[in-house]
Automatic annotation (TrEMBL):
InterPro entries: LMW_PTPase (IPR050438), Ptyr_pPase (IPR023485), Ptyr_pPase_sf (IPR036196), Tyr_phospatase_low_mol_wt (IPR017867). This is protein-tyrosine-phosphatase. It comes from Flavobacterium johnsoniae (strain ATCC 17061 / DSM 2064 / JCM 8514 / BCRC 14874 / CCUG 350202 / NBRC 14942 / NCIMB 11054 / UW101). Keywords: Hydrolase, Protein phosphatase. Signal peptide: none annotated.
Length: 155
């Protein structure tokens, strides 16, 4: 059974599609499944934001085939790890979790790099293109760590 990791943000068009693509590029596809979802429903069925597609492409990762979806209750059973991008996502996702076991799967992603500091991956949607480079760098750094942890734990 592959280990399943879900990346979550608000819209599922900027941050979590990048987190999905970057982490998936660091893990063997036969052992790990990485997916992403939004807490909101505005972008269900949409491609990632062009600025996320562009920054990923610039770094050799193709996220253009992803389609937005909203997080659902069955995700808490299906996924082993649920990483959220910011504190607001954390509150929303924990609120949807129905059991302590489900809640325990939810982690604020940058706490892997900065334990207990509760730092957000900033939402780049309303900002400049440079915000997307910044988000890419943060996610690249933290997914190095997450990929190492997952490979150690599940191999
Ligand atoms: P994301 O960014 O959560 O990183 O995908 C957003 C994208 C769209 C919206 C909000 C955040 N929106 O309100 O449409």
């Amino acid at each position: 059974m592959p280990v399943k990791v879900l990346m979550v943000c608000l819209g599922n068009i900027c941050r979590s599609p990048l987190a999905e693509g970057i982490l998936a590029s660091k893990l063997p596809a036969d052992k790990f499944i990485v997916d992403s979802a939004g807490t909101g429903s505005w972008h269900v069925g949409h491609c990632p934001d062009k600025r996320s597609i562009d920054v990923a492409r610039k770094n050799g990762i193709n996220i253009s085939a992803q389609k937005g979806r909203q997080i659902k209750s069955s995700d808490f059973d299906e996924f082993d790890y649920i990483y959220v991008m910011d504190n607001s996502n954390f509150r929303d996702v924990v609120h949807l979790a129905k059991t302590p076991e489900h809640k325990s799967k939810v982690r604020l992603i940058l706490n892997e790099l900065f334990p207990d500091e509760n730092v957000d991956v900033p939402d780049p949607y309303y900002g400049s293109a440079n915000g997307f480079d910044n988000v890419y760098q943060m996610l690249d750094e933290v997914t190095d760590l997450i990929a190492d942890q997952l490979l150690k734990k599940h191999s």
